[in-house]
């Protein structure tokens, strides 16, 4: 039997960062995943550390926009209508939680996390020797018509009171910032505070390496074998049965499956997303992620080429991939930037783990001593990984939490 203080289940960016923070606080930690580290959602995201997000992704409340969504008329979101009955309860709660008053409460709850998100990553990156992956060049939101540009400018103005820095760019400024853009847009908002990484999986692996160099153990195992015993928990791993006094569940989009046997039912749903890389044609390089807001896709310069990522697809977690969104995005993206050949034969698909209030579940299990949660970071799991790892480790080790964790408790779904 392997004995540890803590077993962290799930080695995506959230689990690895949590394991590091616990280890720094003197805990003997094992990290367990059924695959390698960073091979699921944390593999393929757009790489943005979204220091400028104040409001979480909200369910639209404009009925005209909803009507267009209803016929899959906007590329940024797509519904699989066959899966809708399964999704409807989540969508209804998402709609309710997106009401302006509630959305403001959620934003205020998450604000301390957003404020510290980049600083916490930078500390881990320094220790892990991964600073070279970080680009502090912000990201650009492009607009193709005056009406959407007006909305974009208003949204940018609204975050200035939070101490955030944005620049409003006209068409010429955009061209100067990103000379590779071939189409003329009306303007853009340049979010200056966020940063981005050139390889999200490499970042997860760099954190894992640091964890292992410091004596941490990584083992393959299935979190669904988790059971309580008299003195903590046991889980089966490829290296034998592992016993830990405490367990942290960081299973991202699969967290509900491991929780169900313990009697916790959570309204977790996934917003699926796709990526594909392209070799840039000569001169087609980008300095930062660029969101084509009116056409609903994003391009980010990455180690493997220019990564095209899609918006949200509402479908069952395990439904067959539907490449409609990424194929349409590719047509738009090729008009904007001189993209060369595709790097992969098939697009990658990932699943953003979402709760209806777009806040993570972070904290103690109310009915199981020693069981802890850190999952459900929706569109911002890379952004929030280091800071949420810190907050949970503070709670587990009796330190004063740097932020109020109560809004993230699983008990909000009781
Ligand atoms: C297209 C796209 C773009 C995105 N862009 C951004 C962005 O720019 N910025 C940002 O901050 N976020 C972004 N996100 C969201 C972000 O990627 C996720 O929130 C984040 O990766 C979630 O991390 P995680 O560690 O919780 O989950 P995961 O990375 O999915 O890790 C969960 C781990 O649990 C393991 N696991 C599951 N079940 C079991 C089991 N039974 N036993 C053992 N192990 C198990 C899996 O193998 C996996 O390694 C994007 C997501 C997508 C899809």
Automatic annotation (TrEMBL):
<dbReference type="GO" id="GO:0005737">
    <property type="term" value="C:cytoplasm"/>
</dbReference>
<feature type="domain" description="FAD dependent oxidoreductase">
    <location>
        <begin position="5"/>
        <end position="395"/>
    </location>
</feature>
<dbReference type="GO" id="GO:0016491">
    <property type="term" value="F:oxidoreductase activity"/>
</dbReference>
<dbReference type="Pfam" id="PF01266">
    <property type="entry name" value="DAO"/>
</dbReference>
<dbReference type="InterPro" id="IPR006076">
    <property type="entry name" value="FAD-dep_OxRdtase"/>
</dbReference>
<protein>
    <submittedName>
        <fullName>D-amino-acid dehydrogenase</fullName>
    </submittedName>
</protein>
<dbReference type="InterPro" id="IPR036188">
    <property type="entry name" value="FAD/NAD-bd_sf"/>
</dbReference>
<keyword id="KW-0560">Oxidoreductase</keyword>
């Amino acid at each position: 039997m392997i004995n540890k203080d803590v077993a962290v289940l799930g080695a995506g960016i959230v689990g690895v960062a949590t394991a590091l923070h616990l280890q720094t606080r003197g805990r003997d930690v094992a990290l367990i995943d059924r695959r390698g580290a960073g091979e699921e959602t944390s593999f393929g995201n757009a790489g943005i550390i979204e220091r400028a997000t104040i409001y979480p992704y909200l369910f639209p409340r404009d009925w005209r926009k909803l009507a267009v969504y209803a016929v899959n008329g906007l590329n940024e979101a797509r519904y699989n209508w066959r899966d809708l009955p399964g999704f409807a309860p989540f969508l209804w709660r998402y709609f309710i939680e997106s009401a302006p008053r509630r959305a403001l409460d959620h934003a205020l709850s998450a604000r301390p996390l957003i404020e510290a998100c980049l600083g916490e990553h930078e500390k881990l990156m320094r220790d892990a020797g991964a600073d070279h992956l970080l680009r502090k060049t912000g990201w650009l939101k492009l607009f193709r018509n005056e009406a959407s540009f007006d909305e974009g400018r208003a949204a940018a103005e609204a975050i200035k009171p939070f101490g955030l820095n944005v620049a409003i760019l006209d068409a010429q400024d955009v061209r100067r910032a990103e000379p590779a853009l071939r189409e003329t847009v009306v303007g853009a908002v340049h979010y200056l505070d966020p940063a981005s990484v050139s390889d999200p999986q490499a970042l997860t692996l760099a954190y894992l390496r640091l964890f292992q160099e410091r004596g941490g153990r990584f083992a393959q195992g299935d979190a669904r074998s988790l059971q309580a015993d008299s003195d903590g928990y046991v889980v089966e791993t490829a290296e034998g049965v592992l016993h830990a006094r405490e367990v942290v569940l960081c299973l991202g989009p699969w967290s509900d499956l491991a929780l169900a046997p313990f009697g916790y039912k959570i309204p977790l749903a996934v917003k699926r997303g796709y990526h594909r890389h392209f070799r840039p044609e000569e001169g087609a390089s980008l300095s930062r992620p660029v969101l084509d807001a009116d056409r609903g896709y994003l391009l980010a310069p990455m180690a493997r080429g220019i990564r095209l990522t899609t918006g949200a697809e509402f479908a069952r977690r395990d439904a067959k991939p539907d490449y409609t969104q990424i194929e349409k995005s590719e047509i738009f993206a090729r008009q904007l930037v001189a993209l060369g050949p595709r790097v992969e034969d098939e697009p990658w698909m990932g699943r953003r783990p979402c709760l209806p209030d777009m806040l993570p579940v972070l904290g103690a299990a109310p009915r199981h001593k020693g069981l802890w949660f850190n999952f459900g970071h929706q569109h911002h799991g890379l952004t929030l990984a280091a800071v949420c790892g810190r907050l949970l480790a503070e709670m587990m080790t009796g330190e004063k939490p740097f932020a109020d964790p109560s809004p993230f408790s699983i008990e909000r779904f009781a």
